Amino acid sequence: MKKEDFMKIVRSKAKDTLTEQDENFFGAIGEAVESAMNAESIQRGKELEAIATKLGTVAEGQSMADVIRNMATQIDLLEKKAQRGFTGDEKYKLKSLLEAKKEDIQRARQGGNPWSIEFKAKRAASALMQTTTVLTGASAVNTTNLFDDMELVVIEFPKNFILDGINSRQVAKVPQTIQRKEQIAAGVGVPTTVSEGAVKPLVDKKFTWKYDTRVKYAGRIEMTEETEIDFDQLVLQIISMFEDEVIRTWQDGVLAAILVWAATYTSTVLDGAINNPGVYNVIGAGVLHVRNNLYEPDVVFLNPGDVAKMVYMQDNNGNQMFIPEALQFAGLTPFISTKIAAGKILIGTKRTVKEQHGNFIIRKGVHGDQFIENESTIVGEIFSILSLPTQSQPSWIYLDIATVTAALQKV
User: Fold this and answer.
1) pTM, full prediction
2) Angle at 68 (CA atoms; ends 64, 70), nearest 5 degrees
3) For residue 270, is it within any domain?
4) pLDDT tens profile 180-205
């Protein structure tokens, strides 16, 4: 309690207007009260009791000692309430108010001008969190029996699968460029049988230099220092989700490059030879197409919807056709994901596509005005280099199910 507040109480209790002598007398007591307020609770109690003993009574007959003792009780109650501190919700309400005044504060501080902020607030049942950019949507909760479940429910994304289906490996340092020699033609001349003393045929092989260039997949997230302090576990989850997102982007980039590079279906002996062909038959035609180019395919990538069409095949009479699991994918290792568009199938030879990548790199720093704004940036990146040899293109084939189905249909 301030001296001025104490004097207001004294004046309200006095029957007559206080003289200058009375003002000085009670002013001294008010200073003692203010000093006592700043002392520890036990010491304060002793000081207030001493003040009450010396004070006596006021002119209207009421004991001023009772007034002071009552004040001491009220002070203790106020202190206990003050010691409760801020809840997490209240901290973020206060932070929201500060954020709203952020530009005004900065201008005042930079200009060296006096400034003040007025806050009006009351304690009440409120939403669990008020941070609009990190945590939203909570309803008002007014209970102490509350358990904070730290398991997050997040948006589901397709499984990262493409790097299990190619010749991929992690290296300590991804080179900027890979230089390789690639055969550009079958060559001139072929070995043959020759008679004694005859000239042997000249066999000539030709190669050309090919280059693969490193690619960097990266992104960044930004957050305030308060977010890191108050949402430490959530921030860890966010960083983990961010890492997954960068990795998904990297694998999407690898898949996109393979889809553009892979060969398309031309023809096989199965064309026009199958009654009511389905997805199962399209895979068989794709395998044959790759084998006709002297490669042995070992992986197939399909959309979940097309897998369902293949498994639940029916004959001409609508009867369910059962295909053993070992034969469903023509002996290929299946990768099922929505990363492959519905109506498309990718079949390939794992060994012919080579990829190198490094560790996922994460860095933290500040840029621009972030240092003075208590903000930071987290950067995540991964380096990758992919080799797609031109001569190995026939080892992979990207099929359009409708197109190949029409080609296979027996007339």
Assistant:
1) 0.60
2) 115
3) yes
4) 888 887 677 888 999 999 999 988 88
363 Cβ partners below 8 Å, 6+ apart?
A: 378, 379, 380
Same-domain pairing of 189 and 113: no
Buried b (16+ CB within 10 A) or exposed e, 282-316: bbbbbbebbeeeebebbbbbbbeebbebbeebeee
Number of domains in the chain: 3
- H/E run at residue 246: helix 232-261
The C-alpha atoms of residue 105 and residue 159 are separated, in whole angstroms, by: 47
Instruction: Please count the residues of the chain.
Output: 411
Asked if residue 148 belongs to a domain, the reply is no
If phi > 0 it is left, if psi is from -120 to 50 it is alpha, else beta; for residue 28 that is alpha
Axis crossing angle, helix 64-82 with helix 41-55, rounded to the nearest 10? 160
The CATH number linked to 193 is: 3.30.2400.10
Tokens in use for 396? 């992979």
Domain that holds residue 331: 155-411
- State the Cα–Cα distance between residues 335 and 397, nearest whole angstrom: 15
- Burial code of 339-361, b = ≥16 C-beta within 10 A, e = fewer? bbeebbbbbbbbebbbbbbbeee
Do 77 and 98 lie in a common domain? no
177 Rama class: left (phi>0) / alpha (psi -120 to 50) / beta: beta
Q: Render pLDDT for 56-110 as a digit per residue (tens, 0 to 9).
A: 555 555 555 555 556 555 555 555 544 445 455 555 555 665 566 666 656 665 6
Both tokens assigned to 42: 């036990």
* Of 184, 157, 322, nearest in space to 241 by CA: 157
